[in-house]
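> example.struct
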């Protein structure tokens, strides 16, 4: 029978390639549904999952709940989203984990009894993720599954860990590009003293914080010569002594605003919009696309290491919970120093 209208709150359109795109839009939120016009069982499962996520946040509505099998992965995921195991995660991590679990676990194997979830299922899911997207996304998916399984074991829904034998995919990329000193100088040369882009660079470079924390910084965080805040992502409390150059930038600002960085409408930035705005600033300065605000955080850490800071001292500024990432920066800096020292010794040797 031919369908005459879309399901409620579903917007459907064709993209440039002619593919039918389906989106569930409600209460200011948007969730992608499977493409195409074949509204099969898998499609309706995604539809009800989207409806549940927007309306209840953690439980399925009656229409969707009727489709959930007892003791299935579906049922376990519902409990997981309600659990403290899940809710103790940072909000961004909650969103990322839920998105991955819904798309890559619930949709393909949600009806499978949780007790039958085995190592082969997990390895197949992770291998498929590597092929479809990237090793980085697959690593995050594996982390989400492991967190879910930790809840299931604690709740006595399963008595073994099916992820135990699965190795995380190796990520060959170094992640966000670390700004060079030349790129920092180019940005500063383009934007004048007192401009917001110059202040943004200063906040990132002299505090080594993520953009989620940088856009929240204001006079209320400045206490006894330090910027003190609890990081949004990790809940780590940091106290960062204000660098003289950053203090000079802050002295140019009025003390009437709660945030140092403001939109054109004098409002604090939202993360997504700030990322777009920062891209505009780097484009205007003629910098490559790889120069992101997170790359300035990495550049700040490199500067700390090059100044002679220990890994622990650098972490006290950046707020890293684990030292492995900063240790990699330190090893690279030390390697560069050793190679320069080695070549200097060769040049100094006089040969007949």
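> example.seq
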């Amino acid at each position: 029978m031919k369908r005459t209208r879309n399901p409620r709150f579903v917007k459907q359109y064709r993209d440039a390639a002619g593919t039918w795109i389906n989106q569930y839009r409600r209460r200011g939120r948007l969730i992608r549904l499977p493409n195409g016009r074949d509204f099969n069982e898998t499609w309706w499962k995604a539809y009800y999952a989207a409806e549940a996520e927007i309306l209840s946040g953690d439980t399925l509505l009656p229409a969707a709940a009727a489709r959930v099998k007892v003791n299935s992965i579906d049922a376990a995921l519902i409990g997981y989203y309600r659990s403290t195991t899940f809710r103790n995660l940072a909000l961004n991590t909650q969103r990322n984990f839920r998105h991955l679990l819904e798309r890559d676990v619930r949709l393909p194997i949600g009806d499978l009894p949780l007790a039958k979830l085995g190592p082969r299922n997990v390895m197949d899911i992770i291998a498929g993720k590597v092929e479809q997207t990237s090793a980085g996304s697959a690593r995050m998916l594996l982390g989400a599954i492991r967190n879910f399984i930790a809840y299931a074991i604690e709740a006595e829904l399963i008595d073994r860990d099916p992820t135990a034998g699965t190795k995380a995919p190796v990520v060959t990329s170094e992640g966000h590009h670390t700004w060079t000193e030349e790129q920092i100088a180019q940005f500063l040369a383009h934007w004048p003293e007192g401009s917001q882009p110059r202040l943004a660079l200063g906040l990132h470079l002299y505090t080594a914080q993520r953009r989620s924390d940088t856009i929240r910084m204001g006079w209320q965080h400045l206490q006894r010569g330090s910027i003190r805040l609890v990081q949004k992502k990790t809940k780590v409390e940091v106290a960062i002594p204000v660098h003289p150059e950053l203090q000079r930038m802050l002295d140019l600002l009025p003390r009437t605003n709660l945030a140092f960085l403001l939109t054109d409408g004098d409002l604090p930035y939202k993360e997504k919009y700030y990322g777009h705005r920062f891209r505009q600033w780097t484009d205007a300065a003629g910098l490559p696309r790889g120069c992101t605000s997170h790359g300035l955080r990495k550049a700040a850490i490199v500067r700390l290491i090059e100044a002679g800071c220990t890994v622990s001292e650098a972490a006290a500024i950046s707020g890293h919970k684990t030292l492995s990432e900063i240790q990699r920066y330190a090893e690279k800096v030390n390697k560069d120093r050793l190679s320069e020292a080695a070549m200097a010794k060769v040049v100094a040797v006089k040969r007949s």
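> remarks
The two ends are 93 Å apart (CA to CA).
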